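Sample 3 of the quickstart, ligand O2Y:
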Amino acid sequence: MVHFKNVALNKWVHEMSDLCKPDSIHICDGSQQEYDTLVKQLVDTGAAIPLKKRKDCYLFRSDPSDVARVESRTYISTPSKDNAGPTNNWEDPETLKKTMRELYAGCMKGRTMYVIPFSMGPLTSPLAKIGVEITDSAYVVLNMHIMARVGTAALDRLGTDGTFVPCMHSVGSGAGTKEWPCAPIEKKYISHFPDENLIWAYGSGYGGNALLGKKCLALRIASSMARREDWMAEHMLLLRLTDPSGKQYHIAGAFPSACGKTNLAMIIPTIPGWKAECLGDDIAWMKPGPDGRLYAINAETGFFGVAPGTSFSTNSNAMNSIKENTIFTNCALTDDGDVWWEGMDGAKPSHLIDWQGNEWTPASDKPAAHPNARFTARASQCPVICKDWEKPEGVPIDAILFGGRRAHIAPLVTQALNWDHGVFLGATLASETTAANIGAVGKLRYDPMAMTPFCGYNMGDYFQHWLNMGDKLGSKAPAVFYVNWFRKDENGKFLWPGYGDNSRVLKWICDRVSGKAGATETPVGYLPNAADLDLKGLSISQAALTDLLDPKLEERKAEMPQLEAHLARFGDRLPPRIRAQFDRLVKGLERNKAA
Ligand code: O2Y
Ligand code: MN
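Result:
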């Protein structure tokens, strides 16, 4: 039987093994040899397909019923329902544990139980947290090798009495195939017990449901820890910009899904002399440093990116990150042994095997790759990874961006008037759904700080936590901005070219931080005048520019009842300072009309 010198870990692994009854237990050491052995096993069973065209790359196909995070089966289980708040599914902890214990009973018979010690954040970082995932999925072990710091060093950091986040996972049974077992939807559970720093997941082997270090630990549990311990766990990319004089700026950005977050994290600026480097594309942990500024680390070590739409023309840095040592999930397979997905460069291949293993031609009426097909690649493989991305103390944040996809109303960029206004901009972050999201196209969804699916406690309290952090940071707080690359004209055409040209907006942001760029104050925040933006070499009409920088105050006013209803969801947990920002905006819009 296995033995761990950490007393709590030893007890927990034995308890879970007694419950799940695996045939064997494997303690992961995080080595390349371990990775290679597991890959070989999965190739032998047919679960992994080696790709002839890409060195050390493998394609996996999930069961068609198990293709994405399932928010409807994700729970924040706190003793009081109010503490989970209106944005989370809630279940009483004892009831939920009883249900899940029944599902876990004997669920690993005939399987290996893998014990994966891991660190989120660099091992020597004061912000790092140790987790241990128990899983019966070798695919999960491989992905965790890429996405987190897995292995003996994490165990060593625990010592005999160190604390860790127990992350229990089984793919379950009752649905799926031999290669990809899972449970039917009504038996899937992604459960979080934030008061105990505990995660229990059952029934899905896919992404955020199964790689428990990512959304479950690094966002849901971490956000609740961060509130207790005075730091921030955010759904944010991290980016370093360097201006022609060599001055560095660090930006953290929160964007709901389908807003190009990974593309922005790996941006190639079109402005001469400006350099961008990626520090992370999904999860930032931030804490005030000894100098009073806010410092951020990337909690992860890899990218679990959406494949469809990724191409050399949209994100060449991502394409160059996945040339080798990459796991692909639910992509299509080409006849010569490569992966393919919708939106890749070049013409559609004349024949493929689709993500479900079926023959596919351009005449097929279904996409060849699943819209949520993914690549898992190490951050170190990104051509523009910043040399300081693993600095234990992190990087000092100069600006925080919130951004959504809005065809109208939200201008290209707005700077918050102050921290409270910035928190209000985050709390009212909204995005219109696309074909890539589930649900109706073009529907407005509020997604505060892009954290709706990931906040591990009552979101009203989360707004208050942001306000408290601002009080703590005082004059050293980062400046806050709201960006929208997706404004359209009356013919439905995008007004802004986006991609590398977003560097023009980032330049204005950096120049605002250092007091070099102009702006006009409006009720919705500071807006650049056309002359304040560096547009050299860009072909854009004056009319488009005027439209992009128009605060559209009348349309904004018409949206206020919808905004008020959004804030009303938080009831008496809505901080009065957020309500005050709403009232200030109402008055500002009224005054504008009168003027
Ligand atoms: O569908 C999944 O399980 C993946 S979700 C995901 C993956 C990487 C980065 N962000 C997300 C997200 O949903 O925000
Ligand atoms: Mn994400």
